[in-house]
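Design job #97: recover the sequence.
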């Protein structure tokens, strides 16, 4: 993906998440399937990983940099779920998501396309900034599909 493609992906995901304000509160908090998170926790999960990337990854993307391995995925996911189900207002989660994605878009806009090809290490794994952003774009699309299928099934 080119830089502009990544920017447009993040803009579209942000717009889609904003559209979830129209989801009823019951659907917002209902599990998407047996043993699965509700949309509230899915969006919170995306938000928490965006916040992690903004503070613990993006500032350190440099050729040859050695970044620590990813933290305990389950810990961050559990924190996101607790936050989403703790009574946090849907509008607040959506606002935080929009603000965080706007910061990611701003960061991308400030990069040269060649900056995305800088390779660094996360733990023992070599990855480029472009690959990192693409992995998160795939992650976004996975969760978008999950939420859309759930909401469509509720509409009948």
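Job complete. Output follows.
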């Amino acid at each position: 993906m080119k830089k502009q493609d990544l920017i447009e992906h993040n803009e579209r995901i942000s717009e889609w998440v904003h559209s979830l304000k129209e989801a009823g509160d019951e659907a917002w908090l209902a599990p998407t399937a047996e043993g699965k998170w509700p949309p509230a926790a899915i969006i919170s999960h995306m938000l928490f990983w965006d916040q992690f990337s903004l503070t613990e990854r993006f500032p350190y993307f440099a050729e040859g940099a050695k970044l620590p391995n990813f933290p305990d995925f389950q810990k961050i996911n559990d924190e996101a779920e607790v936050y989403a189900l703790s009574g946090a207002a849907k509008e607040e989660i959506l606002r935080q998501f929009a603000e965080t994605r706007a910061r990611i878009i701003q960061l991308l806009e400030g990069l040269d396309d060649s900056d995305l090809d800088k390779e660094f290490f996360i733990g023992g794994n070599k990855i480029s900034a472009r690959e990192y952003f693409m992995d998160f774009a795939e992650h976004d699309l996975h969760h978008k599909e999950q939420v859309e299928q759930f909401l469509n099934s509720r509409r009948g």
